[in-house]
TrEMBL record, chain A:
EC number: 1.15.1.1
Name assigned to this protein: Superoxide dismutase
Annotated ranges, domain Manganese/iron superoxide dismutase N-terminal: 29-110
GO annotation, cellular component aspect: mitochondrion
Keyword terms, alphabetized: Metal-binding, Mitochondrion, Oxidoreductase
Catalysed reactions, semicolon-separated: 2 superoxide + 2 H(+) = H2O2 + O2
UniProt cross-references to InterPro entries, sorted A to Z: Fe/Mn_Superoxide_Dismutase, Mn/Fe_SOD, Mn/Fe_SOD_BS, Mn/Fe_SOD_C, Mn/Fe_SOD_N, Mn/Fe_SOD_N_sf, SOD_C_sf
Mitochondrion found in the keyword field: yes
Pfam families: Sod_Fe_C, Sod_Fe_N
Main location: mitochondrion
Top EC class for this record: oxidoreductase
Superkingdom, taxonomy of origin: Eukaryota
Automatic annotation (TrEMBL), chain B:
PANTHER family listed in its UniProt record: SUPEROXIDE DISMUTASE (PTHR42769), SUPEROXIDE DISMUTASE [FE] 3, CHLOROPLASTIC (PTHR42769:SF10)
GO molecular function: metal ion binding; superoxide dismutase activity
Enzyme Commission code(s) on record: 1.15.1.1
Cellular component, GO, one term: chloroplast nucleoid
Pfam families noted in UniProt: Sod_Fe_C, Sod_Fe_N
UniProt entry tagged with the keyword Chloroplast: yes
Cofactor(s) required for function per UniProt: Fe cation
Organism ancestry: Eukaryota, Viridiplantae, Streptophyta, Embryophyta, Tracheophyta
Alphabetized UniProt keyword annotations: Chloroplast, Metal-binding, Oxidoreductase, Plastid
Manganese/iron superoxide dismutase N-terminal domain residues: 59-143
Ranges where the Manganese/iron superoxide dismutase C-terminal domain occurs: 155-253
Subcellular location as annotated: Plastid, Chloroplast
Protein name per its UniProtKB record: superoxide dismutase
């Protein structure tokens, strides 16, 4: 058990800082970070099938397209092609955001045996109680925001760096939380339909939150 | 029986008033002027999706013009059921609930409701429900069992005129669908100003009617439309739609209807 958590922590550290590969041109490419747990470890809350497809297909696609867009950006910058540089911004925002968000997402989840689903302790627990009254109130707020989101997007619990307050925020499509201000993402929930559809398609996501 | 106007295309999405004998009888005493913009019906039961409320439905969940399993194997019965009764149904319910509370929005036709709630790019909260009801009505009718293949006659001529060839159009449609970020729809529209067909993509619930264009067919690229059948494989979904599902008959009818509003010129009649 201790060994497992050790490996988990190591993988966690690696997942954030590594995933880089330096190419001979000096261009960084990104690769798919490993999950700190098995695909089936989050059952019955999230099925292994969903985790596998989500990780190996969706996240991988974002990384592949992100690398492609970065390479094209590199070429465009070298050539001084401003219109190409600007045109690539939406692809970078979408695919890069997808990579960032999903990397945070995998870490936001944890199998029950490793503490997943438990109430937060320490300073986070106090901060939640202070701002939202109780953990249930926070969960309620995040669920409502998630369900109200139209289209695809994410629900976040973030920390506002300036006001030092907890905020619940939503972002559209794959926009990362930084696009909404000086916020540090603490917890992210993917409310794109692909995140729950194979399991919860009838309830349209309410139980999933 | 007073004669009240109804649209000549009973299956067009702009017509929310099905004309049946028994339906008409209920409104004998109501002056016909009030009728065309309002559709009232008794509550329908849908296996428990409808909650026990006393809301009068202003808009109904329109049934697709084919059996739910007739699009197999390209769109499974399960997908159609969940998509239609679950998602489309939820939009209809949400819309009806909003209309029951609203004094301003009550009484519009669905087309006008979509345009009004879009508010020129600053949509009100009801836009999503209204537009999604419209989009899904249009979507079910844009497909048919045994569809796909190529369009004929005038439709094909117009496509070849505006895209060069049918293959060009098909590739453009597929490419547009694949490059859509997030949730949205892909459309073949007849542009009113330019008087030509074009392929456009829209985000979330937006529909080209808000810009005054006339849609001919659409494809739902929200993940719920294909995830159960194709999971991540959007390309296969788009190919299945183009090869086996799209209803060119419906497209031709809509184009013919549109020609009443947009002058597309004389048809090319071959000289003997």
């Amino acid at each position: 058990m201790a060994l497992r958590s050790l490996i988990c922590r190591k993988t966690l550290g690696l997942a954030f800082s590594s995933g880089f590969k330096l190419q001979f041109r000096g261009l960084q490419t990104f690769s798919l970070p490993d999950l700190p747990y098995d695909y089936g470890a989050l059952e019955p809350a999230i099925s292994g099938e969903i985790m596998q497809i989500h990780h190996q297909k969706h996240h991988q696609t974002y990384i592949t397209n992100y690398n492609k867009a970065l390479e094209q950006l590199h070429h465009a910058i070298e050539k001084g092609d401003s219109s190409a540089v600007v045109k690539l911004q939406s692809a970078i925002k979408f695919n890069g955001g997808g990579h960032i968000n999903h990397s945070i997402f995998w870490k936001s989840l944890s199998p029950v045996c490793e503490g997943g689903g438990e109430s937060p302790h320490g300073s986070l627990g106090w901060a939640i109680d202070e701002h939202y009254g109780s953990l249930d109130a926070l969960i309620q707020k995040m669920s409502t925001e998630g369900a109200a989101l139209q289209g695809s997007g994410w629900v976040w619990l973030g920390l506002d760096k300036e006001s030092k307050k907890l905020v619940v925020e939503t972002t559209a499509n794959q926009d990362p939380l930084v696009t909404k201000g000086p916020l540090v993402p603490l917890l992210g929930i993917d409310v794109w339909e692909h995140a729950y559809y194979l399991q919860d398609h009838v309830t349209v996501g309410f139980d999933y939150d | 029986m007073g004669c009240f106007s109804y649209y000549l295309f009973p299956s067009s999405p702009t017509c929310q008033v099905p004309v049946t004998g028994s339906f008409a009888c209920q409104f004998k005493t109501i002056p016909y002027k009030q009728l065309p913009t309002l559709f009232k019906q008794k509550k329908k039961q849908f296996n428990g999706f409808q909650r026990a409320s006393r809301v009068v439905s202003y808009y109904a969940l329109k049934t697709p013009p084919y059996k739910l399993d007739s699009l197999e194997p390209y769109m499974s019965k399960r997908t159609v059921e969940v998509h239609w009764k679950g998602h489309h149904g939820a939009y209809v319910e949400g819309l009806n609930k909003a209309l029951a509370k609203s004094d301003i929005l009550y009484g519009y036709t669905l087309d006008d409701l979509v345009k009004v709630t879009y508010n020129n790019g600053n949509p009100s909260p009801d836009f999503n429900n209204a537009a999604q009801v419209w989009n899904h009505d249009f979507f079910w009718e844009s497909m048919q069992p045994g569809g796909g293949d190529m369009p004929e006659l005038g439709m094909l001529e117009q496509i070849e005129k505006d895209f060069g060839s049918f293959t060009n159009f098909r590739d453009k449609f597929a490419e547009t669908a694949l490059t859509l970020f997030g949730s949205g729809w892909v459309w073949l529209v007849l542009k009113r100003e330019e008087r030509r067909l074009e392929v456009v993509k829209t985000q979330n619930a937006v529909t080209p009617i808000v810009w005054g264009d006339i849609p001919i067919i659409n494809l739902d690229m929200w993940e719920h439309a294909y995830y159960l059948d194709y999971k991540n494989d959007k390309e296969n979904y788009i190919n299945a739609f183009m090869d086996h599902l799209v209803s060119w008959n419906m497209a031709m009818a809509r184009l013919a209807h549109a020609e009443a509003f947009v002058n597309l010129g004389e048809p090319k009649i071959p000289i003997a």
